[in-house]
Design goal:
By secondary structure, the chain is of the alpha/beta class. Helix content is about 40%, strand content about 10%. It has a single domain, classed as Alpha-Beta Barrel (TIM Barrel). Strand 1 (about 25-35), helix 1 (about 60-85) and strand 2 (about 90) form a beta-alpha-beta unit.
Length: about 300
């Protein structure tokens, strides 16, 4: 078993470097549309079943998600274009092969793309070290081949990982991971493997978790909008004492539905009406933190210096 301290060490919000964002911004906002591809009959994984129901093929579950790539993505894209905001797409990278129209739209807008696995129905759970290394090689090559870009980060496919994931990510040259929902600021991961940091993502400010929290809860997009605005208000206020990060997780097969899309407009209009908001990408947040704060944070975590 791996000791969590090998990867994540505790440093309270009160005892860390004070973060300042570019141009005096108070809050860094990044938008994470999850562009996903679910296989109709995925290969089995002994650690997790791809569909909630036991029978396969699960036409109902597959069709609900396929709506996002057929319709919902294009409706969501109009909202991003309307506000001229950047996106960091958490992408199942096989989508680049399967949907060239979506690929072209994303590349044309120069969206950042980070890995959300190859398919959202193939997990890292149970992968050997050799299999996981091949996973990163395939991910890096696929993105490079289709876009010319270097892969920088990952949200594990359906939030899956192994005990080797942080080390292998760093060894593969990735610089940020978004699976650790533990902070409102960036933070170092795996101090000895390379410069890998955590970028705050969110399961609460996330249409999939709020709108489809079944069987525990289920809300609609009006409540999702209220949660987004409430999250922003608190982080924006706290950021007067040091920069914070807010992420909004989006899924075209949820927010891209006709009855929900107006709430994405409502949220973006509300947030963008405030001054000193840096609307950016996960990659730019990672670069700024690594350049200006990473080394000091690592020294503090190692106990070499006192917070000041």
């Amino acid at each position: 078993m791996v000791d969590i301290g090998q990867y994540i060490r505790y440093l309270p919000m009160t005892d860390r470097p004070t973060i300042e964002w570019p141009n005096g911004a108070r809050l860094a906002l990044w938008l994470a549309p999850n562009l996903e591809f679910y296989e109709f009959q995925p290969p089995p994984n002994r650690h997790r079943q791809a569909w909630g129901r036991t029978g396969t093929p699960d036409v109902m579950a597959y069709a609900y998600r396929d709506y996002g790539n057929r319709v919902g993505f294009w409706r969501m894209l109009k909202a991003f274009d309307h506000f001229q905001v950047p996106a960091s797409a958490a992408m199942n990278l096989a989508l680049l092969d399967h949907f060239p129209e979506i690929r072209s739209a994303v590349v044309e807008r120069d969206w950042e793309i980070f890995s959300h696995g190859i398919y959202n129905t193939r997990y890292l759970f149970g992968a050997s070290e050799a299999e996981e290394r091949e996973f990163y090689r395939d991910s890096i090559e696929t993105l490079q081949r289709h876009t010319g870009k270097q892969l920088r980060g990952m949200l594990g496919p359906s939030y899956s990982a192994t005990e080797n994931t942080p080390r292998l990510m760093a060894e593969a040259g990735l610089t940020y991971h978004t699976d650790w929902f533990i902070d409102d600021q960036p933070f170092p991961i795996s101090l000895d493997a390379g410069k890998l940091i955590g970028i705050p993502y969110s399961r609460e400010v996330n249409d999939a978790l709020l709108i489809n929290g079944w069987p525990y809860y289920s809300f609609e997009a009006d409540y999702f909008a209220e949660v987004c605005k409430g999250q922003f208000d608190v982080l924006y206020g706290e950021s007067a004492a040091g920069g914070r990060v807010m992420c909004i997780g989006l899924h075209p097969f949820y927010i891209g539905r006709p009855g929900r899309i107006r709430y994405l407009y409502e949220v973006l209009e509300y947030i963008l009406s405030h001054d000193d908001v840096w609307v950016t990408t996960a990659e730019q947040i990672a670069d700024h933190y690594i350049e200006h704060y990473y080394d000091e944070a690592v020294e503090m975590l190692r106990g070499s210096i006192s917070p000041g």
